[in-house]
């Protein structure tokens, strides 16, 4: 009986397992791009879904957040290394390339490991053809370091935008906002690309800052209630878990303190937060008001954000009059009803790019066409809602002049019975260095100077009936 011929076909190559942290980072990028998710919200959910913690969680956080911050820089480099225009590269493939480029140019990942793991990710998530393309591009990226690449893909006119990964129009608006300090522009843009520490607030009457310090947080210089965690999950701090403390940037704390600590004559019982969502400032105001026998009405137009306000203020009931879902530009209360009013207006958010890195790629100059009229309308509503002699604090997390000085000047022109007060000597705001705003008496905080978001604050007093 003749021998059976031996089979010569090879068994299919075994597919290499995709690295889970890199897979999670890609999921974050896709959610931010395709679903318009927010990095700081989708990231914790993704880590929890995959059961990632410790070093793996830190790796995913840096890989995803760093890639989104540096997207503009990396796109310029990838374009120089690709034979295809970026517009013709599949969106998910571009996400993968950005992740690989960040590992090669900004993380302590060996080149061979960064390329190999990213190619495996492309093969698993997109296909073999994409893997070959990714491999070819990343090998070219690995030929130079980040500084060399920036020098090659930028010009004198585009250097700030490319080097610091900000759209050109954002660079222009921030430069205008710096005014005479325009030479600080590079420092400001660089600060936007630094990962901010988690800042906590100890809500007065409910928690002491010493309790946060005992939990490992470090006191911050300007707000007496602020402390920063060096790392870890803030939800593991007991006071945060119980709602007696919260996560809140020091600049945002100073907004609430600026209103609460300003000198006011006459009755001081009724406070209004006109744009309260998601509730951090309302919670601090309610805690401050409760200790003085006053109460805060928190108003938020969007129902889901009103729910966040209710949750944030749940522990401050003694200082809370209620949470109302209403349009702040159409007051559901009589005129002259409040002693203090906060207008933390919806804005471009260009002062908080450290915490919301995706905002720089979503915002467009045309967004100001809708935001600025809304800011004017809200400030008009606030001045109508406050009693004669009462105070209105207008704030934005944007330093853009169209959203700050121009809005305040417009209100002063429309309301002859309103005057601009000096905030520079008010409570916690007194003595903050280099914080002069674009109008006399206003405050402008900066990430590169103060380690806070770029909050703008202006205090107006209504001196006579409207």
From TrEMBL:
Keyword 4Fe-4S part of the UniProt annotation: no
UniProt keyword Cytoplasm, yes or no: no
Binding site for S-adenosyl-L-methionine: 275-281, 300, 327, 344
Pfam families to which the protein is assigned, alphabetical: Methyltr_RsmB-F, NusB
Domain SAM-dependent MTase RsmB/NOP-type: 171-463
Keywords assigned: Methyltransferase, RNA-binding, S-adenosyl-L-methionine, Transferase
Catalytic residues of the enzyme: 397
Highest taxon listed in the record's lineage: Bacteria
Homology family: Belongs to the class I-like SAM-binding methyltransferase superfamily. RsmB/NOP family.
Name this protein carries in UniProt: Transcription antitermination factor NusB
